Amino acid sequence: MREESPGLYGLRFNTGSWNQGFVVQGQHAFLLVTLDKSNLQVGAQYLDHFTDAGHFSWHSQNRTARGSKHGQIISGTAPGYGVHLFVRGNKIRGAKGAPFVYCGDVDFESWEGDAPISVVFRLRAAVPERLRRVFGA
What we know:
Elements: H1 15-18, E1 22-25, E2 28-34, E3 49-52, E4 55-59, H2 69-75, E5 82-88, E6 92-93, E7 96-97, E8 101-112, E9 118-123, H3 129-135
Protein backbone atom coordinates (compact mmCIF):
# COMPACT_ATOMS: atom_id res chain seq x y z
CA MET A 1 0.00 0.00 0.00
CA ARG A 2 1.10 3.59 -0.58
CA GLU A 3 1.46 4.09 3.19
CA GLU A 4 3.93 1.20 3.45
CA SER A 5 6.31 2.28 0.67
CA PRO A 6 8.34 4.88 2.62
CA GLY A 7 9.15 2.41 5.39
CA LEU A 8 11.00 0.20 2.89
CA TYR A 9 13.57 3.01 2.65
CA GLY A 10 13.64 4.10 6.29
CA LEU A 11 11.33 7.05 5.53
CA ARG A 12 8.09 8.19 7.14
CA PHE A 13 4.74 8.37 5.41
CA ASN A 14 3.15 11.80 5.15
CA THR A 15 -0.16 12.08 3.30
CA GLY A 16 0.70 15.49 1.85
CA SER A 17 3.93 14.24 0.29
CA TRP A 18 2.97 10.70 -0.63
CA ASN A 19 -0.43 11.39 -2.19
CA GLN A 20 1.22 12.14 -5.55
CA GLY A 21 2.63 10.14 -8.42
CA PHE A 22 6.17 11.55 -8.14
CA VAL A 23 7.61 11.80 -4.65
CA VAL A 24 11.11 12.93 -3.71
CA GLN A 25 12.34 12.08 -0.21
CA GLY A 26 16.01 12.38 0.64
CA GLN A 27 18.01 10.88 -2.23
CA HIS A 28 15.06 8.80 -3.42
CA ALA A 29 12.49 9.55 -6.10
CA PHE A 30 9.40 7.36 -6.22
CA LEU A 31 7.11 6.89 -9.19
CA LEU A 32 3.73 5.69 -7.90
CA VAL A 33 1.84 4.87 -11.08
CA THR A 34 -1.72 3.74 -11.68
CA LEU A 35 -1.92 2.29 -15.19
CA ASP A 36 -5.70 2.43 -15.74
CA LYS A 37 -6.59 6.08 -15.32
CA SER A 38 -10.09 5.88 -16.80
CA ASN A 39 -11.63 6.70 -13.39
CA LEU A 40 -9.25 9.58 -12.66
CA GLN A 41 -9.87 13.22 -13.58
CA VAL A 42 -6.40 13.57 -15.13
CA GLY A 43 -6.43 10.15 -16.76
CA ALA A 44 -6.28 11.09 -20.44
CA GLN A 45 -3.23 13.31 -19.94
CA TYR A 46 -0.93 10.64 -18.53
CA LEU A 47 -0.46 7.61 -20.76
CA ASP A 48 1.94 5.67 -18.55
CA HIS A 49 2.62 2.12 -19.71
CA PHE A 50 5.18 -0.63 -20.18
CA THR A 51 6.51 -0.58 -23.73
CA ASP A 52 7.95 -4.05 -23.10
CA ALA A 53 9.06 -6.11 -20.09
CA GLY A 54 12.17 -3.98 -19.63
CA HIS A 55 10.98 -0.43 -20.38
CA PHE A 56 8.40 1.93 -18.91
CA SER A 57 7.01 5.06 -20.56
CA TRP A 58 6.01 7.72 -18.03
CA HIS A 59 4.63 11.25 -18.35
CA SER A 60 5.47 13.99 -15.89
CA GLN A 61 3.06 16.58 -14.61
CA ASN A 62 2.51 19.57 -16.88
CA ARG A 63 4.68 21.84 -14.74
CA THR A 64 7.76 19.57 -14.76
CA ALA A 65 10.49 20.98 -16.99
CA ARG A 66 13.74 19.31 -18.04
CA GLY A 67 15.84 21.97 -16.31
CA SER A 68 13.96 21.77 -13.01
CA LYS A 69 15.20 19.83 -9.98
CA HIS A 70 12.68 17.08 -10.73
CA GLY A 71 13.78 17.03 -14.38
CA GLN A 72 17.39 16.60 -13.28
CA ILE A 73 16.44 13.75 -10.92
CA ILE A 74 14.44 12.04 -13.69
CA SER A 75 17.30 12.28 -16.20
CA GLY A 76 19.94 11.14 -13.73
CA THR A 77 21.88 14.41 -13.93
CA ALA A 78 21.19 15.22 -10.25
CA PRO A 79 23.90 13.14 -8.54
CA GLY A 80 23.06 10.57 -5.89
CA TYR A 81 19.35 10.06 -6.57
CA GLY A 82 17.70 6.70 -7.19
CA VAL A 83 14.36 6.37 -8.99
CA HIS A 84 12.05 3.58 -7.80
CA LEU A 85 9.02 2.37 -9.77
CA PHE A 86 5.83 1.23 -8.06
CA VAL A 87 2.89 0.26 -10.30
CA ARG A 88 -0.69 -0.84 -9.87
CA GLY A 89 -3.26 -1.70 -12.50
CA ASN A 90 -6.19 0.16 -10.98
CA LYS A 91 -6.73 2.72 -8.24
CA ILE A 92 -9.35 0.68 -6.38
CA ARG A 93 -9.52 -3.00 -5.45
CA GLY A 94 -12.86 -3.87 -3.96
CA ALA A 95 -13.79 -0.98 -1.68
CA LYS A 96 -10.21 0.01 -0.83
CA GLY A 97 -7.21 1.49 -2.57
CA ALA A 98 -5.29 -1.05 -4.62
CA PRO A 99 -1.74 -1.90 -3.56
CA PHE A 100 1.29 -1.02 -5.65
CA VAL A 101 3.78 -3.59 -6.94
CA TYR A 102 7.44 -2.65 -6.65
CA CYS A 103 8.98 -3.01 -10.11
CA GLY A 104 12.47 -2.05 -9.03
CA ASP A 105 14.91 0.74 -9.66
CA VAL A 106 14.81 2.35 -13.09
CA ASP A 107 17.34 4.26 -15.15
CA PHE A 108 16.65 7.13 -17.51
CA GLU A 109 16.83 6.16 -21.16
CA SER A 110 15.29 9.02 -23.15
CA TRP A 111 12.78 11.85 -23.07
CA GLU A 112 10.70 14.07 -25.30
CA GLY A 113 8.98 17.38 -24.71
CA ASP A 114 9.19 19.80 -21.84
CA ALA A 115 6.56 20.69 -19.24
CA PRO A 116 5.32 17.97 -19.51
CA ILE A 117 8.07 15.47 -20.27
CA SER A 118 7.51 12.02 -21.79
CA VAL A 119 10.19 9.74 -20.33
CA VAL A 120 11.31 6.21 -21.13
CA PHE A 121 12.90 4.39 -18.20
CA ARG A 122 14.84 1.13 -18.42
CA LEU A 123 14.05 -1.32 -15.64
CA ARG A 124 17.14 -2.88 -14.09
CA ALA A 125 15.24 -6.16 -13.92
CA ALA A 126 12.48 -7.08 -16.37
CA VAL A 127 8.90 -7.36 -15.16
CA PRO A 128 8.39 -10.96 -13.97
CA GLU A 129 6.46 -13.20 -16.34
CA ARG A 130 3.53 -13.52 -13.92
CA LEU A 131 2.97 -9.75 -14.00
CA ARG A 132 3.44 -9.12 -17.72
CA ARG A 133 -0.19 -9.80 -18.66
CA VAL A 134 -1.50 -7.91 -15.65
CA PHE A 135 0.53 -4.81 -16.54
CA GLY A 136 0.45 -5.24 -20.32
CA ALA A 137 4.22 -5.57 -20.53
